[in-house]
Amino acid sequence: MADVLSGVASPADVRALPEAALPGLCEALREAIITTCGRVGGHLGASLGAVELVVALHRVFHTPQDALLFDVGHQAYAHKLLTGRRDRMHTLRQAGGIAPFLDPRESHHDALAAGHACTAISAALGLLAGRRQLGHPGHVVAVVGDGALTGGLSFEGLNNAGGSPLPLVVVLNDNQMSISANVGAIPALLRTRNARAFFESLGFTYLGPVDGHDLGALTRALREAKASSCPVVVHALTKKGRGFPPAEADEQTRGHAMGPYEWRDGKLVRSRGGRPTFSEAFAQVLGEALERDPRVVAVTPAMLEGSALTGLKARFPDRVHDVGIAEQHAVTFCAGLAAAGAKPVCVIYSTFLQRAYDQVVHDVCLPGLPVVFAVDRAGLVGADGATHQGAYDVSFLRPLPGLTQWAPMVGEDLAPMLATALQASGPSVLRFPRGTLPDLPPELAHAEPEVTGPSAPAVTPAHGQPAPDALAVSGARWLKRVPGSRLTLVTLGPLGLSALEAARNEPDWSVLDARRAWPLDEAALLEAAAGGHVVVAEEGTVRGGLGSAVLELYAAAGIAPRVKLLGMPDVFLPHGDARVQRTQLGLDAAGLRHAGHALLGEERR
Ligand SMILES: Cc1ncc(C[n+]2csc(CCOP(=O)(O)OP(=O)(O)O)c2C)c(N)n1
Ligand SMILES: CC(=O)[C@@H](O)[C@H](O)COP(=O)(O)O
Ligand SMILES: [Mg+2]
């Protein structure tokens, strides 16, 4: 089977194959996808479901003269395999290896880079308009999932395209799944006769529905679309996870994205991490808040699985809302909930919150509504790479008046921080990273929290159960406080633990966990500067982050300690192992120790 594939070095080879060879090609593609994902993990389910679609697209359209834009790009492993990347697929999502999504810098068969959902229709229409303006021939095809049709940006594109004379081809890859089961009215409509009426009323010619695993039917529909002189939608019905029994059987996600696994004797063997993740720990404390206070509501834009909310959705079906891939709506929906007196917690990945910036500014912060943003995947994300790094949330949220930004260092911080945020009168953020919870270091396990700043008012239990204490203090936390210390390591989030380790054998270094990126605990940070040397470390871009805020504070106070800022650099960091990247960026104990000594003018590490 693999032989068919080894003879395919480019899409021209796909077109040269006799029709009879195509089922074998699809089988070989599936085999390659299953093997690759087994070894290195990846977006298995969507890619398996789109195999026939990708083959048919390459039979009908000629990339790169014609452009194929895959929404997100997570379903396009077959496209990668057919466009000269087969020999490097084993490096998928690893440092220096094949990218997790599509990128023209990797292949001229990739029309545009992406990783976030709902961009394909707008980008394809722009590409087509630009090409036509510059006299370039060629067709442009946007391949979008049914999940993408839960997002407003797709509709902005459809509205523009349907009213334009340009012959944009939209291929709707409808598997009735987002990451979890798709939600809302549109996916339901897609499986009725009204799907035709819907797209036709938007100005598109509608072709379908077509069996998305029937190569003949797909090819005929795509040829018809290619011949069209006006915008056209090809509606293909597919099955996510197709051809891999464990994925097909997984009702929750159909194997949307999987870590490495082995497929032995018909059984899937996977290793499970031992410690809970930050997401799981947050979901646990959120569940306690939901139980305790009937006003609490959780909202996720299509990330029930990744945010570990599936259990809560089952327990509180009416108070845990999956609103689709609709970050803007999620935030403004939360604004409405808060205005009604509910206590919304918007659980959202840092990278996806970027899309809802105006909603955070205009709909939540401006009216000062008490929405809690649980910003997950804040910091390095690893294999998903540049499009998904949680690099910017601190910097883009810090200027917003009235928004408090918390960063738990350890799992034990989550409950009091959430309690504090839930009883605040304005908006709050809790940012936490991708990955497992760190251990509480021995020096903190039994210590009374050492605190600065004014104490927060007590939380009133609303539902008969004792509420966890809100933070006894609203300020920074000294992890190590040495009177007369020469240098202070100031950190945000779990980096405090690395700083503590870095300072362990340094008798005159202090360590301050800022706990908030904004507002600053000014008294503690001014005290940190007293020794004349401050290292500020955060897992976010150094531009405009906590470090910048600390420098602003020192400038305003008219003091000039020597300050070193550590964080994510001024580039879009690619995919790789987050632990390795952390070390490379100096965001581990050794790096912090080195930065401290360098600042003090000492050479030793
Ligand atoms: C803006 C944004 N929000 C959330 C995601 C996470 N995400 C990636 S794929 C996906 C589901 C997409 O569903 P669909 O478009 O139907 O494609 P399928 O996976 O079913 O092929 C989601 C929610 C994302 N990439 N971008
Ligand atoms: C493609 C996409 O955006 C998601 O599937 C993402 O890859 C999930 O990332 P996590 O594994 O961090 O949930
Ligand atoms: Mg789908």
From TrEMBL:
Cofactor(s) in the UniProt record: thiamine diphosphate; Mg(2+)
The entry's keywords: Isoprene biosynthesis, Magnesium, Metal-binding, Thiamine biosynthesis, Thiamine pyrophosphate, Transferase
SMART domains: Transket_pyr
Any one annotated GO CC term: cytosol
Catalyzed reactions: D-glyceraldehyde 3-phosphate + pyruvate + H(+) = 1-deoxy-D-xylulose 5-phosphate + CO2
UniProt EC number: 2.2.1.7
Gene Ontology terms: biological process: isopentenyl diphosphate biosynthetic process, methylerythritol 4-phosphate pathway; terpenoid biosynthetic process; thiamine biosynthetic process
PROSITE patterns found in the cross-reference section: TRANSKETOLASE_1, TRANSKETOLASE_2
InterPro entries the record matches: Dxylulose-5-P_synthase, THDP-binding, Transketo_C/PFOR_II, Transketolase-like_Pyr-bd, Transketolase_BS, Transketolase_C, Transketolase_CS
CDD domains referenced in this protein's UniProt entry, alphabetically: TPP_DXS (cd02007), TPP_PYR_DXS_TK_like (cd07033)
Cofactor mode of binding and number, as noted: Binds 1 thiamine pyrophosphate per subunit. Binds 1 Mg(2+) ion per subunit.
PANTHER family in alphabetical order: 1-D-DEOXYXYLULOSE 5-PHOSPHATE SYNTHASE-RELATED, 1-DEOXY-D-XYLULOSE-5-PHOSPHATE SYNTHASE, CHLOROPLASTIC
Record's function text: Catalyzes the acyloin condensation reaction between C atoms 2 and 3 of pyruvate and glyceraldehyde 3-phosphate to yield 1-deoxy-D-xylulose-5-phosphate (DXP).
UniProt-recorded name of the protein: 1-deoxy-D-xylulose-5-phosphate synthase
Organism expressing this protein natively: Corallococcus exercitus
Gene (UniProt): dxs
